[in-house]
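INTERNAL AUDIT FORM
Audit reference: QA-55
Scope: verify that the stored structure record matches its stored sequence.
Auditor: D.O.
Record contents follow.
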Amino acid sequence: MINRTVWDIFCKVIDNFGDIGVSYRLTKELATNNQKIRLFVSDLKAFNRIEPKVNINLYHQSLDDNIEIILWNNQSESLNLIKQLTPSNIIIEMFACNLPEIYISKITNENIWINLEYLSAEDWVEEYHQKLSYEGGHFKYFFFPGFTSKTGGVNFEGKYLNKLPKQCKNQILEKLNINRYVSNNTLLCSIFCYENNVILKLLCNIKKDVLFIIPQSIFSDYLLDKVSSIGLTKIDETLLKNENNIFIKIIPMTNQENYDNLLLSCDLNIVRGEDSFVRAQILSKPFIWNIYQQKDNIHLVKLKSFLDKYIDKSIVSPKVTNSIYDFSNAINTPLYENNDYLNDFYIIIDHLQELKQNSIIWRKNLIKNNSLCLNLIKFAQLIEK
């Protein structure tokens, strides 16, 4: 039996939808597990894009009995509201977002303050997971999501694990009215990525029978801005094709459940950041990761650390493994000039069955480690004792 308690989660929206996406999924799963949450969010407009029930004009609102939303910005009305609040039992600082000083001033040693870090597959996170630090007169624990039993795991919900991708595929083709652009052999590939010239080239030059579905995002805006100069034909405001009659469908930004359905519908997904990256894994779908770019290409180290753990070489052949590494490096390397990316992509889509088998085994291992939500609850309750 999980004891009911109150959590304060602070989310500063920095990179489009990634921060709020991770924070909201965690919030919903905590609420499902009988926890009460106050979610402090710096940007309600971004939140509204993934959860239309959020009213962008309200400083304080409730989504249901267990979830309150509080606008956290520098405006006086927001600061006055936060000033009146007493910190909850457990405080989650998402990604070292720096809590407001008026709130910190009321934190005591009775509160459990956890800094939830970014997800990483690097080995060093195991050493720092659940470590205690002392700064500014307060104790703070560091909690690292991850892919091993010595980390905090990733967030997932049991209700999505038994969906049937084939049913979702048929439904989404009909819903988007794109049935006439596919045959029985057409592969579906979703793209949710950052601005990316290699993926842009892929869309222009691919010849194999793939229909690409792109939720509205910074990449879709980037793509539409360059249509006239890269040789794509605009059929209407949401449908493009290249000179090889390969179609590209742009769809509206949607809520998290519908995005999950999109991932399930597709044979391959190109995902980004952390939230969509984890969803592709927990739904056991083959994917390529467009990781958040960092200075001095540090992100490529993180990418390799993940692929080294993710790819089971007893399942995935050396040829396909090499193409996964090479294509992943291509889309994550600024100013990449090598044209082998297209052949690597062809190898990947020609061997989706072994990648699917790899993804199923990987998900089983993730589930063994328990969810991020349950691991956080267990950790907090141990500290309380």
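Auditor finding: record pair retrieved intact. The chain has a mean pLDDT of 92.
Action required: none
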